[in-house]
Design goal:
alpha/beta; 11 helices; 39% helix
């Protein structure tokens, strides 16, 4: 995936792409911790879980902490129940009406589900559904209004924020000039000396965005005026936190 994105294959739909800088951090993490602030249930959650599987299998992460919502902000937001349902469904595809699978495919899925249950039972994977994520505060207030959550996140090497809602709360849902650096838009959680690397993976569905180079923004506006909220363009952005001097 990293090679495909950095090679330009998918760049036409990316307004900003920090993949290379993110990879420089990932390649230095061995047996570390990665947190994923989840967005949508269903197929997107499956991709998140597969990413976590790879992070552990590759030796990059010894712990992955998922952050679902205690209550769904939007109807599709991942809850603890959604997460466990997915693991159970993978382990027993027939129980959720899956048909047409070959015996070999079913065995692979069952093996994945069994492995994911092992990771959960061993504490390698954890679910933390803190109330802060559905509270009224933008994420710049994590160190003050969500101090317990922030204290946990600072133990992580990298925190991945998924989706449009999490992005909007990262940048305080303000109408930034699009060229405003991402690290400026997310405020004090970028500058905190204990801050982990913060990664935003977002398909843009509203007109608040930061960290887009002026030339790139001009290109996108020339292609279509509604690119910021069309749902066709995205960003992969990084605030390096305490990794800043190592990339």
């Amino acid at each position: 995936m990293q090679a495909r994105i950095s090679s330009g294959e998918n760049n036409s739909k990316l307004a900003a792409n920090d993949t290379d800088r993110i990879w420089k951090i990932v390649s230095q993490v061995h047996g570390g911790r990665v947190d994923i602030v989840l967005d949508n249930a269903g197929f997107e959650l499956l991709q998140d879980v597969l990413l976590a599987h790879w992070l552990v299998a590759a030796g990059i992460a010894a712990k992955v902490v998922f952050h679902p919502k205690r209550i769904p902000w939007y109807v599709s937001d991942v809850t603890n129940t959604d997460f466990h349902w997915l693991v159970d469904a993978i382990q027993s595809p027939a129980s959720v009406g899956a048909t047409g699978l070959s015996t070999a495919d079913e065995r692979v899925l069952q093996g994945l589900g069994a492995r994911w249950n092992e990771l959960l039972n061993a504490g390698v994977w954890e679910l933390h559904d803190e109330l802060f994520w559905t509270g009224p505060y933008g994420y710049r207030y994590l160190p003050t209004k969500g101090a317990d959550v922030w204290a946990g996140l600072t133990n992580s090497d990298m925190v991945i924020f998924k989706g449009d809602l999490n992005y909007r709360k990262l940048v305080y849902d303000l109408q930034w000039p699009v060229s405003t650096p991402f690290v400026d838009a997310i405020g004090p959680i970028a500058d905190d000396p204990t801050a982990p690397a913060i990664v935003a993976l977002r398909t843009s569905k509203c007109d608040t965005i930061a960290g887009v180079e002026p030339q790139r923004a001009n290109e996108l506006f020339a292609q279509r005026k509604d690119w910021m909220y069309s749902g066709e363009y995205g960003v992969i952005q990084l605030s390096p936190g305490r990794w800043a001097n190592r990339i």
